[in-house]
Design goal:
Elements (H helix, E strand, L loop, with lengths): L7 H78 L6 H24 L2 H22 L8 H22 L40
Length: 209
């Protein structure tokens, strides 16, 4: 009479086989979930880097546009101021040129207001408003010219502080400007009355990295 296999042995074997299959599926599912999580994280990091690069590039373009407009503004303001302080009136060409650079600067303010962080936006008015006030003084043919120097110097200080903060925001080296918040420094820029050229406010436009 042949030996009979107990009924429970096939059952146990079947259960072990089923457990093995289920365990394999669970482990495979976990590996797949982990792989998907890691892939999603890598993709997010990649998109984050791309967003940061686009933000950096956009800000650099906005900053360069405004700095260029302000420096062009200064060249025209310097010449117009010299004419008015000499007691003469601006001719039609000078008036048109002055209004033109003022308009260009106003248009350049928008991108910075939109893309710059608050720390930079707060400084824009310190650079732009003195130039706008100076323009109004110079366009007033019968206006008082005794305050034009103060408006010019305020604009130069505001510009240098704003430019330094912009460069810092882009990760570039920047001029130390802490002294500009105190008493007006002497001999720190070419805006002194002893010079015959516009104040040295120009830096190379930031390179996009």
């Amino acid at each position: 009479m042949g030996s009979q296999v107990p009924v429970w042995i096939p059952i146990v074997v079947a259960l072990l086989g089923l457990a093995g299959v289920l365990l394999t599926q669970v482990l495979s599912g976990r590996r797949e979930a982990r792989r998907m999580t890691e892939e999603t994280a890598r993709e997010e990091r990649r998109w984050q880097r791309e967003r940061e690069a686009r933000t950096h590039e956009t800000r650099a373009e906005a900053y360069a546009l405004l700095l260029g407009a302000l420096e062009a503004f200064d060249g025209v303001l310097f010449q117009a101021r010299a004419v008015r302080e000499a007691g003469d009136r601006l001719d039609e060409h000078q008036v048109t040129e002055l209004r033109g650079v003022r308009s260009e600067t106003q248009h350049a303010l928008g991108p910075v207001a939109l893309h710059a962080p608050e720390a930079v936006r707060r400084l824009v008015s310190d650079a732009a408003l003195p130039r706008m006030r100076l323009t109004t003084m110079l366009l007033d043919a019968d206006g008082d010219t005794t305050k034009t120097r103060a408006a010019w110097d305020a604009g130069q200080r505001g510009y240098r502080v704003m430019r330094a903060r912009m460069r810092q925001d882009l990760g570039f080296d920047a001029e130390p400007v802490e002294e500009l918040f105190g008493a007006q420094p002497t001999g720190v820029s070419a805006s002194s009355e002893s010079t015959s050229e516009p104040a040295e406010t120009t830096s190379r436009p930031p390179e996009i990295v």
